[in-house]
Design a protein that fits this description.
The complex is a heterodimer of chains A (321) and B (149).
Chain A: E1 5-10, E2 14-20, E3 24-27, H1 35-48, E4 55-57, E5 61-64, H2 70-73, E6 80-84, H3 94-101, E7 106-110, E8 125-133, E9 140-146, H4 150-153, E10 161-164, H5 169-180, E11 185-187, H6 194-200, E12 206-209, H7 219-228, E13 233-235, H8 240-246, H9 253-260, H10 274-286, H11 305-314
Helix pairs in contact in A: 8-10
Chain B: E1 2-6, E2 12-13, H1 16-23, H2 26-30, H3 32-42, E3 45-48, E4 51-54, E5 58-60, H4 67-77, E6 83-85, H5 94-101, E7 106-110, E8 121-126, E9 131-135, H6 136-143
Parallel strand pairs in B: 1-7, 1-8, 2-6, 6-7
Antiparallel strand pairs in B: 3-4, 4-5, 8-9
Helix pairs in contact in B: 1-4, 3-4
Classes of the chains: A alpha/beta (321), B alpha/beta (149).
């Protein structure tokens, strides 16, 4: 499945309205905000349709998945937005992650746990809050909000140490940029090791650069580290390849169109997360040019003044001094 | 005393709200502590053991309370010896977990690093490492070093 889908579900008391635009969306947040009620309303509508008394509007089918036979049911479900509540023990299993990867469905998962097998985006972790009452003063209107608003994480910083999630081209680029400014820069060697690196780094103003497209499972812990170490910042673009594509180094109206609403171009079954898509696009657009891109080893053309400056310009609020 | 254990453990209930629905006692609902917790978390008033007045849903049954407040009541009143998964609780339940642990020895199970920042100073024994923590900062530092989730 690809594209963004607006979902409206309501009964006489409650109305939820939100957009789903990636294969994995996570809902978490405080107790008593209506997460389970949302899933129950979807389940009732999926079972009984309009005779449930619930109204659901969405271009795609919506349903829940919550019984012991999920492994049998999921392969038979296609082109559907599937809602899962936190009680499902299988959410953390490798088998579930494998089936999500192979699926052409979108998944909306209620959980506070870090689902490390699923590479979900920081942009798709939401809480639910009440936006107000409808004009009849009877129905409460609920909407999603971003749990991790990017502004709070990447506000102004001149780092005195940099940790890069990546160990390939992205790391090589930032290592070179930092070396010119005599700022220590190390690779975490993967997102799950970022916290360990942070704990071992004896600097104040640490900048973490990680792929926002897949950092979701680490966000709760990163956010709490930042609460206790307020001088730490995270820069979370979709991926290093996305920064290059955004930099203007590569011309093309089609590319700009793609970057303005990538959800309409990214088939979830083909790309488990958006990072892989942007890597594929960058390789495709730079093939046989002086900027030909390889994820494994950085093309030194990206370190020449013009290219380097264009890439760094995308990183608002980050000042390598 | 609050004891926190991260990861899969024996004798724990992964989804406490389901356990609550099948095991709660009427007197738990009208206990002053529950009345306060239901008011604070669910913004609802206890009318009787079988009736709650919710500002959103109107009159609801006890089983329609939030998963967080059900888990808190289990922590406060359940005597089965089970350890309840506090990852069913939102961060708005943290102060109540600490309050319940002020009344009794309470062991909770976590599958994520719950945010106790709203509580500030509190004491907890981290069972995975055997270390005592005395503040949110110490708790985060210790919890982030524990691999089990």
């Amino acid at each position: 499945m690809k594209g963004s889908y607006h979902v409206m579900v309501q009964n006489n008391r409650l109305r939820y309205e939100f957009d789903i635009r990636r294969n994995i969306t996570i809902i978490q947040g405080d107790s008593a905000t209506g997460k389970t009620t949302l899933v129950q309303m979807i389940a009732l509508y999926a079972g009984l349709g309009e005779s449930s008394g619930i109204e659901l509007r969405c271009e795609k089918n919506c349903r829940t998945l919550d019984n012991p036979d999920w492994e049998l049911i999921l392969p038979a479900v296609h082109d559907t937005i599937i809602f899962l509540d936190e009680e499902n023990l299988f959410l953390k299993t490798d088998q579930f992650a494998r089936m999500v990867r192979e699926s052409d469905n979108y998944f909306v998962i209620i959980t506070r746990e870090n689902l490390v097998n699923l590479p979900y985006s920081v942009e798709e972790i939401y809480g639910i809050h009440t936006a107000g009452k409808y004009h009849d003063m009877k129905r409460i209107y609920n909407e999603f909000y971003h749990i991790y608003s990017n502004g709070a994480f990447s506000s102004e910083i001149a780092p005195d140490a940099v940790i890069v999630e990546d160990s390939n081209s992205g790391y090589e680029f930032f290592h070179e940029v930092c070396a010119q400014k005599q700022i220590p820069c190390e690779s975490a060697g993967g997102k799950s090791s970022i916290i360990l690196r942070l704990k071992n780094t004896r600097k104040c103003h640490i900048l973490v650069i990680a792929d926002g497209a897949s950092i979701g499972p680490e966000m709760n812990e990163l956010a709490q580290f930042m609460k206790t170490h307020p001088d730490t910042r995270c820069y979370l673009p979709e991926s290093f390849e996305w920064i290059i594509l955004k930099s203007g180094l590569i011309d093309g109206n089609a590319l700009q169109e793609l970057l303005s609403h990538p959800e309409d171009f990214i088939e979830s079954r083909e790309y488990f997360n958006w990072e892989r898509f942007f890597t594929h696009i960058l390789i495709q657009y730079t093939k046989d040019t002086y900027l030909h891109y390889s994820k494994q080893r950085l093309n030194t053309a990206y370190l020449h003044d013009r290219a380097r400056d264009a890439i760094l310009k995308v990183m608002e609020h980050i000042h390598f001094k | 005393m609050l004891k926190i254990v991260f990861g899969d453990i024996e004798n724990s209930i992964y989804h406490p709200p389901t356990w609550f629905d099948n095991r709660y006692e009427d007197e738990w609902i009208t206990d002053p502590l529950s009345v306060q917790m239901i008011k604070d978390i669910d913004k609802s008033d206890v009318i009787s053991p079988h009736l709650i007045e919710s500002p959103v849903l109107g009159p609801i049954s006890t089983k329609e309370l939030s998963g967080g407040v059900k888990t808190l009541m289990l922590m406060a009143f359940d005597e089965s010896g089970k350890i309840f998964n506090a990852s069913s609780c939102g961060n708005n339940c943290a102060k109540w977990i600490v309050a319940i642990a002020g009344r009794k020895d309470l062991t909770i199970n976590l599958h994520h690093v719950m945010d106790f920042s709203s509580v500030g100073e509190f004491d907890a024994l981290m069972l995975n490492t055997g270390r005592m923590v005395h503040s949110y900062e110490e708790y985060v530092d210790e919890a982030l070093g524990i691999e089990e989730r």
